[in-house]
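Fold Annotation — chain and its backbone

Encoding — discrete vocabulary of local shapes
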Amino acid sequence: MSKLNLAALDISALEPQAKPYLIYDAKQPGLYLQVSPGGTASFYVGCRRTGGGPVKMKLGKADRMNVTTARIHAKEWLPKLAAGEPTPAQQRKRERITGEALATVGEALETYIKVVSSPGYRNKPLRASSATGYRYCIKPISDWRLAKITRAKVQDFWIDSDQPYNSKLNTMRVLRTVINFIIERNADDPEFPLQKNPVDVVRRQLSNTPAPTNRKMISAEFLPTWFKATSERGTLVADAMLVMLYTGARRNEILSLRWEEVDWAEKTLRLVDTKNHKSPLMPLPQEVADLIEPRRAETGWVFPGEGDKPKIGVQTDRRAIVEASAVDFSCHSLRRFYARCAEELGVNYLTTARLLNHAVTGLTGHYSDTGEVSEDMRRASALICGRIGSLTCPEHNVIKVAFGHK
């Protein structure tokens, strides 16, 4: 560390070193020049706060500011820094932090959506449909101020809210995600109002409280009635529901299916809009092929909606089928029924997981995942569809076969 008259120094001729080095000004106390290993020279002013530790502030780069200007700024800021006044950079940071702390949950959610929807964010950018769902979940508490959220406030909402259990649970999940995101953004500031997530109090309660079972199921006894009402409905959505029944696929996976993803020669179809962001290849059951073949095309949506978009809404048809069959169900009920048939028929666990596009953990699942439609998957699919056919048309007969494991 040296002390020189910076005005008499040829700053552009200074050589960089392996580590940053400082040259203090002999004329103005607290002013010094820092030269980085990359050769960048910058003016700084530094001192020790009254009753506190050292503090410094960057004044500017030497190629954009002369020594005279640097001395004027150093003389102005030296007493302010000693008195504990925040630097402009610290002030901007405080304003940002204060703004985020005083923001509402709805505003914080929009910040979260903007960041995680950007391309390349953690390899899984947020989809537009997920963002819409998050906004819907957070609607009951969108006007809450982040800085005012406490454990007691969260707990009171959980106890007093008239929302259904699953709706409250989804609201808490999104709130917890948003608060974790804001806390992570301000993790280096010990004065940020939120240091711990207040939603964790509800999370701990949930771990000790069994969730009520509110899953809609279709029993084998009422499947013929449901199947008849759905077949007679004759709409695109009704056909899509029958495809869900015969494939066990999720609603979005079927409604977003395109003709380009149906391979008639190999009798396969590829699911694209999946929950786990994978694009698995699935067997094409003959029942599904017979159902969609009359509308067969080379390109476009298998179940087209308005304009160049797939069919989205299913509630109108669902209510009509419920009224006609007296069987209350959801699209996911069809997936559960498919899985139950696989279990009753003794289909191998790994094969069932592949057909349902479930993640299979462990080395065995990793090694057995070839990305192709295996013969076990084809046989299991045909057997499950045969089982469904025997329930909807009792004259059909199906022989139970075990696939490797019972």
